[in-house]
Design a protein that fits this description.
Helix content: 25-40%
Structural class: alpha+beta
Bound molecules: flavin-adenine dinucleotide
Radius of gyration: 22 Å
Shape: globular
Length: about 500
């Protein structure tokens, strides 16, 4: 049976971080690496919200380049190279083809992508180059040949978002931090008008403890405003949300080792078609979303939008029947007008409330390390902690192990029964959803295959966690409820 260290939260910490997505986990690593006594609490599972639903790119952002946001692109490209150095097992170099179907597009894209190379400087992953139509099609045989002049091929980074999240959690633990999922912040306790402790509820047992803290960091992503209101009921909203959806198809639909960048959609965005884990990811959209949700569902018309836009660039249209998974995430976007006290950067914001709650919001996965460093710099001042510089620039991240050997769970998935045990023993997986969605990527790759694995995963996980059949059935039912909307959408419902 795998023990759970919830009682370890009943202690006095230098820093307590609320939220176990990219931002909070990064902050926990930064704080623990400085020698601060650190705890991180996650209400559900690590990366359950936005951090498992990205396009899986570690990138400077060619879109920002087109918008002239040079500083942001340079910073992200710098972070890209730091991350590849510190987590080479998780971040790789990927070639991106930007196709030109009009004669003037190739020089235009070439100039832009040369600028991207220059901004990357010595940390560049590889030089951009012009490919003629034949060379382009050799790399991407499914690309539409009619009217193709050529393309520019540039380099960017690719990763697995939840595997990086787990690696960060384990790195923080290696550095002495207490890191727990299914531990929700439900209130603050004060001394005078300053926050002195977080009330934390164990979501499995209902037990509550007080985690005392010199400083508390709010890294709750799309739930940022909820936690801010727990501190100050009159806090004005800092965030607005935007939904971004993806569809996933088998690799055969789009063979080749490179990704495709569709530089302009009808609504003026870019669309990526990216090889990932023997599948291909197509995305994304950008639609205002009124409220945060843990399991947002793509709308039917978004699937049609992505199928239609991708098909314009393919020899054979991609159809709904080929889609194996679809998912969406909510972007936490900072309302710049909302905070006057905030220290603003282009993409993320760090705000300190009157009671000393340090809120970090916005940003992207690529820049999580820099955001964490900035946040802990502020937290150090607010908490009056001993000065200690950030060490994360040169800090290798914990290497993860999945997938392992053993009986295959499903012929369409690269995971084995041993991976279930590994996830429970070493990666704090507590539910069938944790295993299938975020230790493995089954939900995100092939949702039907993932559903077929449910009873066996439930059984194996129950055995590992010392639970009974009733628990296994309840955890399996919970996963089936999460997968149901995606299954219905694929069935045309
Ligand atoms: C569609 C899409 C595509 C993207 N693609 C990319 C990409 O390719 N590259 C890139 O660099 N970035 C990308 N991003 C951005 C990136 O995914 C996000 O910036 C990042 O994941 C945000 O992480 P976070 O930790 O701030 O938030 P989250 O991941 O949402 O984490 C917040 C956590 O706080 C927890 N929480 C909430 N309330 C409480 C509480 N009371 N107690 C304890 N815990 C609590 C939640 O359960 C959640 O797990 C993309 C975003 C979207 C939406």
């Amino acid at each position: 049976m795998t023990p759970r260290a919830f009682a370890a939260l009943d202690d006095a910490f230098d820093v307590v971080i609320v939220g176990g997505g990219a931002t909070g986990l990064g902050a926990a690593v930064d704080a623990a690496a400085r020698g601060y006594k650190t705890a991180l609490i996650e209400a559900v599972d690590f990366a359950k919200a936005t951090s498992s639903r990205s396009t899986k790119l570690i990138h400077g952002g060619v879109r920002y380049l087109a918008e002239g946001d040079i500083h942001l692109v340079r910073e992200a490209l710098h972070e890209r190279s730091i991350l590849r150095r510190n987590a080479p097992h998780l971040v790789g170099d990927l070639g991106f083809i930007c196709p030109a179907y009009r004669w003037y597009e190739a020089p235009y894209y070439y100039a832009g992508l040369m600028a991207y190379d220059v901004l990357a400087g010595s940390s560049n992953f590889g030089r951009s180059q012009y490919l003629n139509a034949r060379q382009t099609r050799e790399r991407l045989p499914a690309l539409r040949a009619r009217g193709l002049f050529g393309s520019i091929r540039y380099h960017d980074g690719q990763f697995d978002d939840t595997r990086l999240a787990i690696s960060l959690a384990r790195t923080a633990i290696d550095l002495g931090a207490v890191v727990l999922n299914y531990a929700r912040a439900v209130g603050f306790e004060r001394i005078g008008d300053r926050i002195a402790a977080v009330r934390v509820r164990d979501e499995e047992s209902g037990v509550e403890v007080r985690a005392r803290a010199r400083v508390v960091v709010n890294a709750t992503g799309i739930f940022t405003d909820e936690l801010r209101r727990l501190d100050d009921s009159s806090a004005r909203p800092l965030l607005s949300l935007s939904r971004g959806s993806h569809i996933v198809v088998p690799r055969e639909v789009f063979p080749g080792d490179d990704a495709l960048l569709v530089p302009r959609t009808d609504d003026g965005r870019v669309l990526f078609i990216v090889p990932w884990h023997r599948h291909v990811l197509i995305g994304t959209t950008d639609i205002a979303e009124p409220a945060p949700s843990l399991d947002p569902v793509p709308h039917a018309d978004e699937m049609e939008y992505m199928l239609a836009h991708a098909s314009r660039y393919l020899e054979r249209p991609v159809t709904r029947s080929q889609v194996t998974a679809l998912f969406c995430g909510l972007r936490p976007l900072v309302n710049r007008a909302a905070s006057t006290t905030a220290k603003l950067s282009r993409e993320h914001v760090i705000e300190t409330s009157r009671s000393g709650l340090v809120t970090i919001a916005g940003g992207k996965w690529t820049t999580y390390r820099k955001m964490a460093e900035d946040t802990i710099d502020v937290a150090r001042e607010v908490g009056g902690l001993a000065a200690a510089p950030s060490r994360t620039m040169q800090l290798p991240l914990h290497e993860s192990m999945l997938p392992g050997t053993g009986a295959a769970l499903h012929p369409n998935l690269p995971y084995t029964e041993d991976d279930v045990a590994y996830a429970a023993r070493h990666e704090m997986a507590r539910t069938v959803d944790d295993v299938l969605s975020r230790r493995m990527r089954a939900y995100f790759l092939d949702v039907r295959a993932s559903a077929a694995c449910v009873p066996r995963v439930g059984e194996l996980l129950a055995r590992e966690l010392g639970r009974d059949e009733t628990w296994a059935r309840a955890s399996s039912d919970a996963y089936e409820a999460i997968a149901a909307p995606a299954l219905a959408a694929l069935a045309g419902g």
